[in-house]
Amino acid sequence: MNKLTADDLIYGYINGIFPMADADGTLYWYAPDPRAVIPIHTYKPAKSLRPILNRNQFEVRINAAFTDVMRACSLPRDVYDSVWISEEIIDAYSELHEMGLAHSVETYIDNRLVGGLYGVALGSAFFGESMFYREPNASKVAFHYLIEILRKQKFTLLDTQFINDNVRRYGAIEIPKADYLRQLRTALKHKTKFVTSSADTLLSDQL
């Protein structure tokens, strides 16, 4: 099989599939049924997160360290965690980032990267891939800013692929694959842009 490219990723996303690597690096394409999505306009930050947002405990940057975020996400969380982000995947998504279609939201303390997430934006759909943290709440703050971006830029679909306890805390729900594909087709018809300006102006006035 040829090496994974940015064009392969674009083709996959517009058709509702995405790649993951096995332990030996072999790539497989997935199309879960049901599919997990996070309704953009019903998300509310947890009460425990609001003081952290108000204190500006973390500096938030956008697209400042995309590949570093991917590499951090590729590390196993514990001895039982499987690794699915291979070097081939990192290279392909980095190519997509250079094309302006893959993005990262990062959190910093004292100029040190301590958390973040990355994903792909096509039309008005954002495909969330993975997140990590090295300090408590670092990834939660990154996700909060992601939602602010998606709302302000009028995104209509936030895909999170599989349901698990981590995405449930952000309000993820499962929908049938057929419903997801209908939402995806609609989202791809609506053009919007993932903001790349300073994150300072994105925090909602209503926390």
UniProtKB/TrEMBL annotation:
GO molecular function: leucyl-tRNA--protein transferase activity
EC number(s) per entry: 2.3.2.6
Pfam families, per the entry: Leu_Phe_trans (PF03588)
UniProt keywords, alphabetically: Acyltransferase, Cytoplasm, Transferase
Stored InterPro entries: Acyl_CoA_acyltransferase (IPR016181), Leu/Phe-tRNA_Trfase (IPR004616), Leu/Phe-tRNA_Trfase_C (IPR042203)
Record family assignment: Belongs to the L/F-transferase family.
PANTHER family: LEUCYL/PHENYLALANYL-TRNA--PROTEIN TRANSFERASE, LEUCYL_PHENYLALANYL-TRNA--PROTEIN TRANSFERASE
Protein name in the entry: Leucyl/phenylalanyl-tRNA--protein transferase
Organism, as annotated: Spirosoma profusum
Gene: aat
